[in-house]
Write a structure and sequence with these properties.
Cofactor: Zn(2+)
Order of helices and strands: EHHEEHEHEHEHHHHHEEEE
CATH architecture: 3-Layer(aba) Sandwich
Pfam families: LigB
GO molecular function: ferrous iron binding; stizolobate synthase activity; zinc ion binding
Pathway: Pigment biosynthesis; betalain biosynthesis
Oligomer: single chain
Largest sheet: 6 strands, mixed
Radius of gyration: 17 Å
CATH superfamily: LigB-like
Keywords: Dioxygenase, Metal-binding, Oxidoreductase, Zinc
Number of domains: 1
């Protein structure tokens, strides 16, 4: 691998609502559109996405030659179901991920049919609109804990040296749908989000792994963990002494958090 192809960063992005694909008023949309100019200009060889919207018993990697889109949302405007993102699959990367996880003691599987869910294709439409970078996904195990997902990430750390961009895609604050909207940012949401920023940027990764004993209001912010665990994978893949940086923060309804983080390896 050429040194210039090596990657030092991993990312956690908040993809929020699928409506971002067609709704220009979602603030995170312009952030993602400016990705290559303002956040990360290097073109990766391939992309591994850990999306909130794929949960399995065992870590599973999508291994297809071409990724069909999964429209995994219901009752949205018709144009949402016409959107395309014809990125190539990354079967070689899938095999490499399987190899790294197996060596680290994880039982895992390949899925040779599954396409990209909206946790991948909606943000990638804006980040890499040419759809010319191979993409595969790795699933979550939402019945397990943050430490499991951090260790998954640690196993994937060598991918950076191979030119693979590791992206966790979730939402920094993701309450249940019946949570009342707020004028401004709901205080409980701001408190959790500020705790997360402080913990990450001061390197308290163990606190983030054990957020259920450390974080304020976590039961409202993440009643289910699937939108949070992609962060743990990205954090782990950056390595032990990685530096975290908040690169975007916005809100929808004052309760859905769009904080995004960059992790840079030491």
């Amino acid at each position: 691998m050429d040194v210039k192809d090596m990657i030092r960063e991993t990312f956690y992005i908040s993809h929020g609502t699928p409506m971002m694909a067609i709704n220009k008023s979602v603030p995170a949309r312009s952030f993602l559109k400016g990705w290559r100019e303002e956040v990360y200009s290097k073109k990766p060889k391939s992309i591994l996405v850990i999306s909130a919207h794929w949960e399995t018993d065992l870590p599973t990697i999508s291994a297809v030659n071409h990724s069909d889109l999964i429209y995994d949302f219901y009752g949205f405007p018709a144009p949402m179901y016409q959107l395309k993102y014809p990125a190539p699959g990354a079967p070689d990367l899938a095999t490499r991920v399987q190899e790294l996880l197996t060596v680290s003691g994880f039982k895992c599987a390949l899925d040779k049919k599954r396409g990209l869910d909206h946790g991948s294709w909606v943000p990638l439409m804006f980040m890499y609109p040419d759809a010319n970078i191979p993409v595969c996904q790795l699933s979550l195990q939402s019945h397990l804990d943050g430490t499991h997902h951090y260790k998954l990430g640690r196993a994937l750390a060598p991918l950076k040296e191979e030119g693979v961009l590791v992206i966790g895609s979730g939402s920094s604050v993701h309450p249940s749908n019946d949570t009342p909207h707020a004028v401004g940012v709901a205080p409980w949401a701001a408190e959790f989000d500020n705790w997360l920023e402080e913990a990450l940027t001061s390197g308290r990764y163990e606190d983030v792994n054990n957020y259920q004993t450390k974080a304020p209001n976590w039961k409202i912010a993440h009643p289910w963990p699937e939108h949070f665990y992609p962060l743990h994978v990205a954090m782990g893949a950056a390595g032990e002494n990685a530096k975290a940086e908040l690169i975007h923060r916005s809100w929808e309804h004052g309760t859905l958090g769009y904080a995004c983080y960059k992790f840079t390896s030491s």
